[in-house]
Amino acid sequence: MIRNMILLKIPTGMLVFLTAFFIATCTPATPGSTAEILTPSEPHKLTVMTHDSFTVSEDVVTAFENEYNAEIRFLKSGDTGTALNKAILSKGNPLADVFYGVDNTFLSRALDEDIFEPYDSPLLADIDDGFELDQQKRALPVDYGDVCLNYDKSYFVDQGIEPPQTLENLLEPMYKGLLVVQNPATSSPGLAFMFTTIGHFGEDDYLDYWKGLVENDALIVNDWETAYYTEFSASAGRGPRPIVVSYNSSPAFEVIYAETPLDEPPTAAIVSDGTCFRQIEFVGILKGGQNRELAEKWVDFMLSPIFQEDIPMQMFVFPVNSQAQLDDAFIKHLTIPTKTAFVSPEKIAANREKWLQEWTETVLR
Amino acid sequence: MAAGVDRDSVEVNSKFFTSSYKKYAPHALWLAPLAFLGLFYFYPMGSILEISFSRIEGSQAAPFIQALASERVRRVLGFTFFQASLSTALTLLVGLPGAYLLARYDFRGKSLLRALTGIAFVLPTLVVAAAFNAMLGPRGWVNVGLMELFDLSQPPIQFINTFSAILIAHVFYNTTIVLRMVGDYWSHIDPRMGQAAQVLGANRLQTLLRVILPLLMPVIITAALLVFIFNFTSFGVILVLGGPRFATLEVEIFYQTVSLFNLPLAATLSILQLACTLILTILYTRLSAKLTRPLSLRPRKYTQRKLTSWRSKLLAALLVIMLLGMLTAPLIALAARSFTRLDPEPGQHAFFASGLTLDFYKELTTNRRGSLFYVSPLTAIAVSTGYAAATVFLALALGLPAAWALARNSNSKFNRFIDPIIMLPLGTSAVTLGLGFIVAFNRPPLDLRASILLIPLAHTLVALPFVVRSLTPSLRSIRPRLRQAAQVMGASPMQVFRHIDLPMVGRALLVAATFAFTISLGEFGATALIARPEYPTIPIMIYRFISQPGALNYGQALALSTILMAATAAGMLAIERFRIADVGEF
Asked: Do A271 and A285 fall into the same domain?
């Protein structure tokens, strides 16, 4: 091994020095390892590992911290895939007590790698069974969001044509050259849209649909940012294409983060049956954590109305708890699809590589 | 008993110490740099490779055979080399005339030019993509202008998702390396050598090819190699600007790791990428050792002329326009966009600007959502600067002894072995190394997985090769006789360093510090993997904004990008000013 060879060359004194330096300076990262020696008045520490897009209101977290005399630390560990990989590779000596943010497209990877401990939270009673994809309750649903086609409303008004309503519509000549989608190999909404087509057309026929999209001059880019801000016509980038793959909450973002106040969004999401893919995000207690009791309290808290009601305006996804009230400003500009395309996590795990390869060979060549 | 020691044995002893000091002292310089690399590079890399391969079911050789037999991997490898070679050649083509201008002429605004052309180098890909989009995108200034001018309905220039976009972005990023490294070295070459050749009857071309070029060769190769390695491991540019049809090894490693979690194959590709880098660096170290010769470097005031003749003025003007056009136009386009109010009617598909605004900048200072993770732009600037300062300190503290050791005896076996290894982190996949940190530093006393210290450490790994490469040529070209003379006069090695080497490399030291500072300031990939949301750098904040829909979010990303550019430009200008009075003016 390279590393043994090189390490031999490092003088021990230097190592001791560096080691001492880092013991002195680094923060204790093992969650709860210091809990035993704390006096009761000091807060109990809990670490929550999550992805880049996570955000929460300050007062919501403070409410939890005050109630349980706790101190919550969040670790944002890259995009969903990267954060999950890190959790898997630190299995046994986890970086955190709780992991939040694995979605149904990655769920099987998390479960197969066995990083979570089961926890039957009492709050699951308020959550629709349809969200509970893991019967052993290792991963508990927190929120969901739908990846849907978005369109530029004024483009279709100006041109005097109807926006597309179905996936099949997109193959028609009147929509030629209007669509921009993300590469499923590099983008999470891109992957979700590929699953939409698989769920809708079936795994034997979805590639034919994609051939049709390419023939109808659909543009494929690698990331959501390029699709939305460079190519999509109703975003701040004012690109040339009026249909894009994004989220059903994107129109609400466009109103809330409008440059000049708007009464209604410049964009709309297409939510007809089978045109969206639902991403459900889960939370789980990591195996080998030191704070099982507080971790359970945190999971309960994430599923309880106070946290659930904070989710929409923070992360623009929907709470799974049926008791949670949705903010008016949020509901006003949003439509939730009644029937989304479905591909089970097990099927995704078994076929992810095969599908991506097929897709790449069919669509990018 | 002590009295029994006679003079002879004392002399023998002191001789022994002197000779062993001479023998081992140069190696002692390697202690800190090697300890650092061992602990924070080889140890995590070794750990992640070991774990990756332990996940293989079946024979150990399987992923190597699988990878090399795969047409996909061979194609990726071929493309990686192809685009890197072409990008490097183009970068030299743009950079060398610019280096000549900066080296040989003294004109007003030169510091500004140097500072402006350096900004591109530090910017994260997200910002560069937004900048090119603001200039050359479907609704960029150029396309909109052309559409207005010729009354077109579709943008005439397609930039995103093209091979040209990759090449242009690489030239945009890396030209400053050539300008700075070659330009600085060139500015110290005695112009009398060229003049002597011309007196002896050589024409300008012959002088350039047979006198100047050979003298510049070591530094040109150094610069080209750095540029090549950067292009070779290119990730963001390929992904965002090149689009789905292009993949380098680094992109493929990312795909195999994140999308498919095929760690054995990802590790195999990482090793492949490392092996290519190692071959390149070995090639380079051998070449440059052969080419380097001590030169009598001259102060700038003897080597630079004023622009007097109209020919030289015209030439300079053309070069300045070319450099600014290639290296700063996209940045200006982006900055302009960050102050532009959009038409409130998004149906308008032609020119969209409807006035000037400071809204995006004002919005940066409001925490609209009451989010726990809100950070003011000033805090982000402070955090970024703090990491960058720590990186400069670490990289110079480790890089200076390494460069010194390399310069003193470039032919020792040990140095020839170590030299290429210092550059390895540049050819390392950030995704792989990031996971390496997670698996290597997972137990006390070195549980660094969630520590903010990892950020300057990771930045130092990237900056160190630049620091060493910027310092070594200058240190090497100091004539040994100067040192020997000082030693003869009784100077200790420390004094020799303090009074001979340090003053003579002051300039190179500043260049090195600038590299370290700016690399840290704009670094995104490694920083994003390290998980402390309460201390985000500016690039991390930009990413937070640009990954959400909404005009204000996009506007804030552009505003922060502009702030990053301004901060970088200010830093670089400060260094340019400081240079004038620095010890480097010998």
From this structure: no
Q: Nearest-CA neighbor of B341 among B327, B325, B323, B361?
A: B361
Distances (CA, A) of B104 to B186, B187, B305: 8, 6, 6
How many domains would you assign to chain A? 2
For residues A359 and A119, is the Cβ–Cβ distance under 8 A? no
Q: Are residues A224 and A286 in the same domain?
A: no
Give me the residue from A81, A229, A266 closest to B346, CB to CB.
Answer: A266
pLDDT tens digits for range A289-331: 888 999 999 999 999 999 999 998 888 889 999 999 887 777 7
Please, which residues have CB within 8 angstroms of residue A20's CB and are 6 or more apart in sequence?
none
CA distance A353 to chain B (A): 6
Nearest to B42 among A6, A74, A246 (CB): A6
Within this chain, do residues A180 and A89 fall inside the same structural domain, yes or no?
no
The answer to whether the beta carbons of residues A46 and A72 sit under 8 Å apart is yes
Distance CA B405, CA B412 (A): 10
Domain around A258: 145-278+333-363
- Which ipTM did the prediction report? 0.80
Interface test with A, best of B40, B438, B443, B457 (most A CBs within 10 A): B438
Q: Do residues A208 and A351 share a domain?
A: yes
User: How many beta carbons lie within 10 A of that of residue B309, not counting itself?
Assistant: 10
CATH number at residue A112: 3.40.190.10
- Note whether A17 and A45 are same-domain residues: yes
User: Considering the entire predicted model, what is its pTM?
Assistant: 0.83
For residue A91, what pLDDT band results from cuts at 50, 70 and 90? confident
CATH of domain B34-341+355-580: 1.10.3720.10
